Amino acid sequence: MSLAPSLPERIARTRADLRMGVPVVLLHGDGDVVALAAEGVSRARLADLRELGAVHLAITARRATTLSARAYDGDLARLNVPASAGVEWVEAVADPADDLTHPMKGPFSSLREGSATPARAALALAKSARLLPAALIVAVENGAQLAAEHGLTALQVDGALPLMADLAPLADVIHARVPLSVSQAGRVHVFRPDDGGEEHFAVEIGRPDREKPVLARLHSACFTGDLFGSLKCDCGPQLHAALAQMGEEGHGVLLYLNQEGRGIGHANKMRAYSLQDQGFDTVEANHRLGFEDDERDFRIGAAILKDMGFASVRLMTNNPAKIARMEDQGITVTERVPLVVGKTAQNAGYLATKAKKSGHML
Ligand SMILES: Nc1nc2c(ncn2[C@@H]2O[C@H](COP(=O)(O)OP(=O)(O)OP(=O)(O)O)[C@@H](O)[C@H]2O)c(=O)[nH]1
Ligand SMILES: [Zn+2]
């Protein structure tokens, strides 16, 4: 009998700690580290980390490129945090908000020695906590002992990294009838991943025949567009047009995937919007923040479709990557159903960038 949390549960706990600004211990054969999310780091915590040893700031190669810092570790850089640097320095490196007003942030020196794997895990955890992808790290001698002494969560990096890259199993927790304006025959399913991540929803309209391709939409959450009527994107009109077409045909399935801001989270999407007001396009803004163009995991959508018994879809999308990801995951896309609605003066540039840089068929 063991009441100890499993590895997926430990990952969830580590993520929650980082989000709260609590340090965590990452255990690794080549050397343990204490890690702390850079976002919102307090003076006291930074001082505590310095007591443990030399502090480094792990950032993604995307962010390093913007800062003209060397990324010796390929996908990331471990910057030396100067002894004189305070929390303002950490925030300014992690967050591009004032890049234009303070363009000369360097020069930076980066760590070359030692394994970058714990730093990589810290960044993956920060991303999955929907924080800025930047983490303070300090190498420590006996991480497990330190964690026990201070009541910190300790995580084995070698087990956690591959598990985080895998798709977390999803359970169909509950489904219930919800009459909708587009169709009385609406049913909403709630899917919950076993890694403590966000729940996703499936809206089933009618009773689609599982033997035939179903009219399907994979919608990514957009709180500004879906709820507030934002004119900066086309999400709200796409959501409503997709449901309306399913209502007209009598059958369909709309997945509402909680991957806000193409998977970077609410706060980071608003940071991206703020950068867009400084003149960067949607892709450049993601890169400056340290993210890839698109951080979504469409395996989730494919897994939900399969769980519901759907093997082939008529996919409502303009995004060729969505079609490719479905096919990769064994969902046959028999037809692409275009979904071009909601063009506004304010989103013309956004849509043009999607067409130019992401290959959208608009
Ligand atoms: N990071 C970031 N995310 C954005 C921005 N504008 C919209 N989003 C997010 O982008 C996602 C839009 O997803 P979808 O509607 O599935 O659009 P898509 O991938 O372009 O594909 P289709 O609509 O199927 O053609 C949502 O998660 C939005 O929150 C932005 O400027 N930056
Ligand atoms: Zn949107």
Q: How does this model look, in words?
A:
It contains 15 helices and 13 strands. With 362 residues, the chain is α/β, with parallel strands linked by helices. The chain has 2 domains: 7-164, DHBP synthase (Alpha-Beta Complex); 170-259 and 296-357, Rossmann fold. The strands form 2 sheets. Strands 7-8-9-11-10-12-13 form a 7-stranded mixed β-sheet, with helices on both faces. It starts with 6 loop residues before the first helix and ends in a 5-residue tail after the last helix. Zinc ion is lined by residues 222, 224-225, 233, 235.
Q: Tell me, rounded to a whole number, the average pLDDT.
A: 95
User: What overall geometry do the principal axes of the alpha carbons give?
Assistant: globular
**Strand order across the biggest sheet?**
7-8-9-11-10-12-13
Largest sheet: 7 strands, mixed
Which cofactor or ligand species appear?
Answer: guanosine-5'-triphosphate, zinc ion
What's the CATH architecture of the largest domain?
A: Alpha-Beta Complex
Give the tally of β-strands.
Answer: 13
Distance between the termini: 57 Å
Whole-number count of domains: 2
Oligomer: single chain
* Number of contiguous helices: 15
What's this, in brief?
About 40% of the residues lie in helices and about 20% in strands. It contains 15 helices and 13 strands.
Which helices and strands, and how do they pair?
Blueprint: H1 7-20, E1 24-27, E2 32-37, H2 43-52, E3 55-60, H3 61-67, E4 76-80, H4 87-94, H5 117-128, E5 134-140, H6 143-150, E6 154-156, H7 157-165, E7 170-177, E8 186-193, E9 200-205, E10 214-220, H8 223-228, H9 235-249, E11 252-257, H10 260-263, H11 266-276, H12 282-289, H13 299-307, E12 312-316, H14 320-328, E13 332-337, H15 348-357
Parallel strand pairs: 1-6, 10-11, 10-12, 12-13
Antiparallel strand pairs: 1-2, 2-5, 3-4, 3-5, 7-8, 8-9, 9-11
Helix pairs in contact: 5-7, 11-12
InterPro entries: GTP_cyclohydro_II, RibA, RibA-like_sf
Pfam families: GTP_cyclohydro2 (PF00925)
Enzyme class: hydrolase
